[in-house]
Amino acid sequence: MDLFCLISLYFICILQKIELTESCLQDCTILQLQKQIQSSRHKPACVLFSKYVEEYTLKKKLCTLVKDRHSNERYASWNFNSFKYDERMPLPIQTPSVVPTVRCYLTPSQWYDYNDGSTVKHLHKWFQKLISIFDQRIPEASLAELDHSLHHHVLTAVGFYFISEHSYLEQLLMETQEAWRDKVNMLIVHPDSPDLRLISNKYSVKQSPSLIFIENSVKTHNEPVIQLALGPLDVNKQQIDLFMLIREMPVMTLTYAFDRVRQDMVDKDASIRFGIMEVNNSVRRVFEQTVRAAYKIGFPFSVLFSAKWHKTTVIGIDQIVIAERPTPGTFQEALTQHHFMLKSKEGKMLHLDLPWGHYEKTSGIFCAA
């Protein structure tokens, strides 16, 4: 083989190498990159960060993987691009500390870097790990997904948030899903979700973060009903666990606990009447218009109604809500907190000085009566 042939083959190899590295990844601008990062929660974005001085090794491995990926690979539909930059260039995004690096954004605030010099097979295994992480996310709540959940789960929780609250809320929902796996199905509405406005309007969600629990009776095919709506100050693990714990209590346990409170007041000759109300669909609308706590806390809960007097005229009705399981202890705490004084039937003041707070609580866990 003469010198001309050797030179020709050399340039052919170089051209093939350039074609491989240039055709599989498209260089994107910073604006294009930002747009893909913002939509990465719907479709992950993988970017090869490199300097202006071309580096082929990692890019060749990534291109080999991208060009050879099959339709049955989960990452086949992800976005793949490259971004070249100078370290002196001010950028509105955080760049990798080492280049070249493949960075995959699973959400705008959750990304993973790869800059290992291993084989294509190793890179492929890294992508498979990303798929596992991606699958652990809380599913996005579209109207179709929400309708499907309400038809297949008795209880569905839907979270709403602004961008800055994403990490906190999604972590909270993941912990709730893990703790109550068989009891509730978790969904999340992102700020750029296509059905954000429709779902927000349907369930009257106006604040962020918010979390609503919607119950649907699968057996009787009742219409979905909001059982709990938590606003920005109440979206926390304690409120969620309290709601779920009370839901899991047998009805007989709750009515018996409530009866203990009633009997305790009867023994003290307190001037107070008790009743239990089942809130079904036929009375729910009137109930929600009358009881202020109807949308703020979950069922069951207790409300103490008392007349507000001006001289000899009733000018309103006060409502003291007891969100916890009804026991003499929780009843006393609510009355003390609101400075409410009970009277006997003879008009004498009753002093709540018994150690009721010791009833039925063990290490913060509610106990069955």
Automatic annotation (TrEMBL):
<protein>
    <submittedName>
        <fullName>Uncharacterized protein</fullName>
    </submittedName>
</protein>
<keyword id="KW-0732">Signal</keyword>
<feature type="signal peptide">
    <location>
        <begin position="1"/>
        <end position="20"/>
    </location>
</feature>
